[in-house]
Design a protein that fits this description.
The protein has helices at 16-27, 62-75, 140-143, 159-169, 188-195, 290-312, and strands spanning 2-12, 32-36, 80-82, 85-90, 98-102, 105-114, 118-120, 136-137, 151-155, 174-178, 200-203, 206-212, 219-224, 230-233, 237-240, 244-246, 276-278. By secondary structure, it is of the alpha/beta class. Strands 1, 2, 3, 4, 5, 6 and 17 form a seven-stranded mixed beta sheet that branches. The two termini are 32 Å apart. Bound molecules: NADP nicotinamide-adenine-dinucleotide phosphate.
Length: 313
């Protein structure tokens, strides 16, 4: 399928940055559509148990907040297309133009906002891949219910690891939080919550050497980096929350990225290639939060408008 329509802006990804951009684009009168491989909007927010720092929605669940974002966009008539993007082609002539190739056909647009976000990193420990889905999980809200009254471990020390540990503490009998340093990276408020829970034990300065089990996870081997002690924790589940990697595989030859694969763009969201903008977690930035992703969406659309005006006049 090749669409006859020419879009002003195609937005790739329907997390907070993508939906934020879509709302601003539609209100600006731009011909816009959002392409996402999933019909369910929300991105990483969907797998967040509780969001306590998005303005106006204290303590909201990630899925409720995602629903609210999507409802807002639907009310304004945002067009969502479920399609897996497979590549971008620069077809610029006198004016800038891109063809976005997808599994549902090709879409042509004057500009593109990349808002594909990031996905979880792998830990890289032996047993992780073999036992994925058999006790190894990357989403506590998705899989936590399988571990009712069990003992589990969470690996990591950031916001996601601490949120996961707090969430799992409400379901599981015992939660170990295994962190490689003696200080958590997570927000103070999350740390306070974590430290108040009696069934959470933090294992400091320790790395997971191996995740083991015959068919299902039976435990993890840990190594204390300070006293060099080796230990085994008997756990039925291991929740890995050791950071994120940007979903920029398709963009390697298109825009400049840093060494970790984040797209280099400042607050205007303009990338090294004209007509391509980057919004949300995919952009190199100091703070990755829902509120900064939504703000990127608005800024990106403002930049798109300026870009289109400059090319048209
Ligand atoms: P993150 O902030 O990058 O934290 C990753 C954690 O995993 C760090 O504690 C890190 O240890 C540890 N780690 C990394 N590689 C490891 C390895 N190979 N072995 C063991 N530990 C390892 O990632 P995140 O928690 O997934 O959060 C991602 C982004 O989303 C962050 O910017 C975060 O602020 C944001 N976020 C915000 C909210 C919120 O506002 N409510 C919620 C969720 C996420 P070190 O500390 O030693 O580096």
């Amino acid at each position: 399928m090749m669409e006859n329509e020419m879009y002003d802006v195609l937005i790739i990804g329907s997390g907070p940055a993508g939906i934020g951009a879509a709302v601003y684009a539609v209100r600006a009168g731009l011909k816009a559509a959002v392409l996402d491989r999933s019909p369910v909007s929300g991105g990483q927010v969907l797998s967040t148990y509780e969001v306590d720092n998005y303005l106006g929605f204290p303590g909201v669940s990630g899925s409720d907040l995602s629903d609210a974002f999507r409802r807002h966009a639907d009310m304004l008539g945002v067009v969502f297309i479920t399609a897996d993007v497979q590549g971008f082609e620069d077809c610029s002539g006198v004016q800038t133009m891109y063809t976005v190739h997808t599994d549902k056909g090709h879409f042509v647009s004057r500009t593109v906002i990349i808002a594909t976000g990031a996905s979880h990193s792998l830990l890289g420990a032996p047993g992780e891949k073999e036992l994925a889905g058999m006790g190894v999980s990357y989403c506590a809200t998705c899989d936590g219910a399988f571990y009712r009254k069990s003992t589990v471990a969470v690996v990591g020390g950031g916001d996601v690891a601490v949120e996961d540990a707090v969430f799992l503490a409400g379901i599981c009998q015992k939660v170990y939080l295994v962190h490689r340093r003696n200080q958590l990276r997570a927000a103070e408020s999350l740390q306070k919550k974590l430290l108040s829970l009696e069934n959470v034990e933090i294992i400091w300065d320790s790395e997971v050497e191996e995740i083991f089990g015959r068919e299902m996870v039976e435990g993890i081997k840990i190594h204390n980096k300070k006293n060099r002690e080796e230990n085994t924790l008997d756990v039925e589940g291991v929740f890995i929350a050791v950071g994120i990697v940007p979903d920029t595989a398709l963009l390697a030859d298109l825009v400049e990225m840093d060494e970790k694969g984040y797209i280099i763009a400042d607050e205007t969201c303009a990338t090294s290639r004209k007509g391509i903008f980057a919004a949300g977690d995919i952009r190199k930035k100091p703070m990755r939060q829902i509120i900064t992703a939504v703000a990127d969406g608005a800024n990106a659309v403002h930049s798109v408008q300026e870009f289109l005006n400059a090319e048209t006049n």
